[in-house]
Structures
1.
Amino acid sequence: MWCNDFKKAFIGSELTCINAEGKTLSRIYLDSAASTLAFAPAQQATQAFLKYYANTHSSVHLSAKISSEAVAWAHQRVLSFFGATQGYSAVFQGNGATSPLNRLARGLSELRADKSTVLVSLMEHHSNDLPHRAHAKKVIHINIQDATGEFQGVDLIELEALCKAHQQQLNYIAVTAASNVSGHITPIYDIAEIAHKYGAYIVVDGAQIAAHAPIQLAQDNPQRSIDFFVFSGHKTYAPGSPGVLIGKTQLLDQLKPEFYGGGMVSEVSKFDYSVSGLLFDKEHAGTLNIPGIFMLATTLDFLDRVGMYSIYEKECMLTQYLIEMLQTIEGVKVYANTSNTQRIGAVSFNIQGLPHELLALILNDYFAIAVRNDCFCAHPFVRECLVDELWEIEDETQLPLYQGMVRASIGLYTNKADLQALEHALTCIVNNKAYYVSQYKLTDELHFVHKTFKLETQQYFNIEDTLTNCFSDYLSKEKISMYEQREEMA
Ligand SMILES: Cc1ncc(COP(=O)(O)O)c(C=O)c1O
């Protein structure tokens, strides 16, 4: 019932665009795993809040108090959304999950300098792999394939054997809660139990799961509780909001501050300073992204009211439909995980014999369908999935064109009609492959461009026109055109 009503709550869900044949089409957004569309009511709530906006480092005046209350509410709201009210704190940092993951990798390697080893699964996004490689003395990658080379995710028996073998040096296990390539959901609570049994922490990359499935960081059995969980606001319908790190307070308390500056100190003299004893202050040097934090918490509040279990259920049904649909189209190959359960709605595929970039372009240019292509910042995993196909390519110059996939991913606004549109598009492409291929040429840099059609982005969003329009109530025509004159003189 609820899903259809939601579409119009998301900014950009009703976009139309002109395709390569000059037809106006409704844009279909299937790139939610990269960034979700913005939830308009949260933007509205944030606009309402902005009337009272002030810096939370001010404390006495009305707006400062309202801002401080909004941030305190948002902090609690984020924690309760992830079942982390008791003994957990949240830190808002950077633009997405990458920043807090770096913060943790550096902080934990400093905190436990005697523990040199980190276990990282082979299906990680680079943001949950490279920071550990950069800061830990040793990273061991956890296998994700079975004996036949088929994708299986993290095998708990193998993982436990690894932990046992490296017990003395093991600092933490870093694993994604859901893969951005295969959609596979990782058994994070089982992994937490294994990690804790061997004296290690668990760092969970929640970037792909936060908006799509329920998470309960504090478990009844504390051995199964998650130590650190990281996610991105822009993947939870709140672009413009920060990345978030949620961690056990007693562990976060032990980390040295990441940044130094205003707000994180209790006392500064000419010769010395003392870092604040309050975790929230210690972790937030400088001014917070207050509107972003508020908008994020507002969005999570909405998701909670809808219910994360029903969101997960609904998205599972759509994902099942998507996978089954893809499997019925001749020449389409779905990668790594074709199961319908224990997964989120990120599905990676290719059409045999068609470079991934070309397929994504055709979907955009002819069908107004937005998907992601390439390696999704998970090169080791994607290349592993493609290895057999790549071996079969005889002409080595063609290899780079096939080192990637196309990914369709869903969000709260996705409905069956969107997936049927993808089905229609893929069927047309498979049936008329030679025609579509002939419309493109390959550049020297190995990118495809349409021979006649050019995406006229200015036709949709022109920065100059937008500013002129927005400024017109406040600036005279002369002042607005002064800008144009300066541009001309430059
Ligand atoms: C699983 C996963 N982890 C981490 C990231 C990095 O997130 P961000 O770009 O928001 O820092 C992404 C982004 O796609 C992701 O999918």
2.
Amino acid sequence: MISILVVNAKGGCGKTTIATNLATAFANAGLRTALADCDRQRSCLGWLKRRPKDMPEIVALDWHKAQGKVPDGIERLVMDTGAGLRSSRVQEALKPADMIVIPVLPSVFDERATRTFLKKVDTLKPVRKGKKPVGIVGNRLRSRTRAEAELDEFLAKLGHEVAARLRDRAIYQDVARRGLGIFDLSPGRRAGAVEEWLPLIRLIESQDGSVGREI
Ligand SMILES: Nc1ncnc2c1ncn2[C@@H]1O[C@H](COP(=O)(O)OP(=O)(O)OP(=O)(O)O)[C@@H](O)[C@H]1O
Ligand SMILES: [Mg+2]
């Protein structure tokens, strides 16, 4: 199993959007997938309730109070966390994860809030030693803006770089409303959007050496 924690103390940066869409990527690739909701708002659980029954199954785990057991046979576990995670709780939150995905919006407010969080993550031993890779996702990027370059500069100063760049697309809100992710859509409808996820998915899949899997 590969477990992925989607986390950032900053609210509204796209944690739930990334967690739900990643889960649809794995489920559509035929992997037994669970989505654990560690957020009091329980957005992922609501999304799973809206998910049509004929879509590839994603197992719901309600972990908003405490982390529970992962059912047998799960191959990919995606964990969504809430905003406002305190520095003192970062280490504990990271424990069940093989890797960490941190979404960041290209805005000065988000960068500043993320800086403290990222510095804390970087102090943790498994991260320092490269045992738990960190994938930073630049989210809601718009073409032809300086904001994207500024996000790169901000991350470079912290010794990081963007692992994947997701554009600002109305499709994410459309699919979320219907309990879907973009990987559930037909190739024609998801054109363009899916390619942006591939660097992140490759990074995740490199964790168990199953290179070449069709996602
Ligand atoms: N790439 C994107 N393009 C367009 N809209 C997006 C994108 N990513 C996220 N959004 C929208 O931004 C809003 C916030 O996203 P989301 O709920 O995923 O953030 P969050 O980090 O989970 O928030 P919270 O901290 O409240 O849990 C939502 O309305 C979502 O649909
Ligand atoms: Mg959320």
3.
Amino acid sequence: MPLVEFENLSKIYRMGDETVRALDGVGLRIDPGEFVAILGPSGSGKSTLMHILGFMDSPSGGRLQFEGNEVGRISRAHRSWYRANRIGFVFQAFNLLPRLTVADNVVLPIVYSRSGIRDRNARAATALERVGMTHRATHIPSQLSGGERQRAAIARAIVNTPSLILADEPTGNLDSRNVDRIMELFTGLSAEGQTIVVVTHDEHVAGFARRTIRMCDGRISEDTSRPV
Ligand SMILES: Nc1ncnc2c1ncn2[C@@H]1O[C@H](COP(=O)(O)OP(=O)(O)O)[C@@H](O)[C@H]1O
Ligand SMILES: [Mg+2]
């Protein structure tokens, strides 16, 4: 079963009497365990696609299936459940809460889960260990380097064992050494079976993924995979 399947997806933004067709008939299937890079110039619809993939926005038309469920027909509450439980997000600007420690930031996605506090803290510790950030657990974000902040954000994204990680320009604020560290981290997670979609405008970053999808003017212009 595909993890995600789109058919003829469109997204139209209306601003006054101007309309922007951000997505224009996108069809896409992503299977569990795939590592996908979405490349394309600014304004080509990459973030819009990510927002729809991550249940942060709804399409204007088309069909979307997630884990076999027809998403257009599920309730708003069910959508937020997906967003909270099945998706891990990584952003260009890290989006860590500045007054919380790294450990408290990482535990946030599961803070309302039914598990007890000891179990939650253990899961946060495991996620921090996975990204090599155990020694920074009690620091606050301003005490970290950019690369460390993004590793903390990746720990937060994996803490609820999501079925899909969405990363929108995750290396956009990093120097080249940290770009490679972060992409090697995603490569490692991918090798463990994690499904990952990374949006980037950087060919070098896209080179870490097995499959590359190019977007242009709201459409997919190319979809290629390299052999294992
Ligand atoms: N909330 C919005 N309201 C109006 N237009 C938008 C909005 N979000 C994106 N757009 C427009 O949709 C198009 C695609 O944007 P986006 O998905 O952010 O592209 P990318 O991430 O590839 O740079 C652009 O023309 C952009 O200006
Ligand atoms: Mg974008």
4.
Amino acid sequence: MGRRLRGILFALPGALLAAAGALALPPPQAGPVRPPAIPLETGEQIWKAGCVACHGADGGGQPQNVAGFEPPATFPDFADCATSTVESDLQWRAIITNGGPARGFSRIMPAFRDLLTPRQIDLVIAHMRTMCRETAWPRGDLNLPRPMITEKAFPESETVVSGAINAQGDAGVGSTVIYERRIGAKAMWEAFVPYAFARTGGIWRAAFGDLGLGYKRALFHRTETGTIVSAGAELVAPTGSRAAGTGGASTVFEGYGAYGQILPASSFVQLHGGIELPAHPDKVPRAFYLRAAIGRTFAGGGGLGRRWTPMIEIVGDRELERGAVMECDVVPQLQIPLNRRMHILGSIALKVPAVQAAGRARQAMFYLLWDWMDGGLAAGW
Ligand code: HEC
């Protein structure tokens, strides 16, 4: 057994020392240090020795008078599946190893880098994973980085503002606000509103695009194999402007499947395929699409620091008309966290028409993403 409990006792604030007293352990001031009174060989033992004083036996937190600090707004309840399962092991490992401030959280959460071995930290994380007792919730580890166009399989709570700027041809700027909200263990709903400025025939126009509502549900997920599969549906209403070219021709129903798979060496692949069925196929042709994103996440600080993820997407669309051909774009991109908590992320991309490219402009694309379950916009910088 590597590090000693006494190390924890030396380093931790009053709350833990009080609890250690309750466990009949010697306070650090009590002269020569004695060997640990309880072993640190299982996750549960480590939890009881180092974490219980603040987080409580079941992970729901000690009452304030026992813990001795006012809990921050983001103070976790590890038994609450809705908030604990969305966190990845990596995120927890980073906070336990380097302390709250390393990820823009409270400094009350101590760093255990010098007190626990990496193996002990993994054991305590495995113990924390037993606190949510429902297996229906897909684990945050399966929440792969969001590609620019490919829909991911993980159901999320977040707000995204995305945009595209024509890099050639007719001038145009488009943006979409997307709001996603988790429902229960496996599902989420989303709403999105596009807004576009376009110059056609020498005149600038600005208009809303077609408003959409969507639902997505995880059908299968497995942390051990790094796999998640979802199905979703969207209904797009013709609220756009036909004059400005932002839609408005027909209500469109869309059904799709999405698949995410973690690969070795922090890489991954995400696939997304669907079909678009307009209510008025005479005005908007029926179509299907296939999208694939492959990428790899890099991180500093021994894998626990800021992450950045280069990805490449291939997106293909084909109208379901006789003689129609598949149009295909290639989209290299880079996603980076903007703050220390990494719940605010940005991504930039270039969309390059590759197959049947005539009539489509090269576009610069971007998004800003805010995972609001992890805190406000001003938190964690
Ligand atoms: C002195 C009190 C204290 C001790 C001891 C303590 N923690 Fe914490 N921990 C906190 C506080 C406070 C937060 C919330 C920080 C915030 O939200 O800003 C926290 C947050 C966390 C988080 C982040 C949770 C999330 O999902 O955002 C993890 C993981 C965690 N603690 C694990 C542990 C483990 C494991 C131990 C024992 C090895 C431990 N903590 C010991 C006070 C403590």
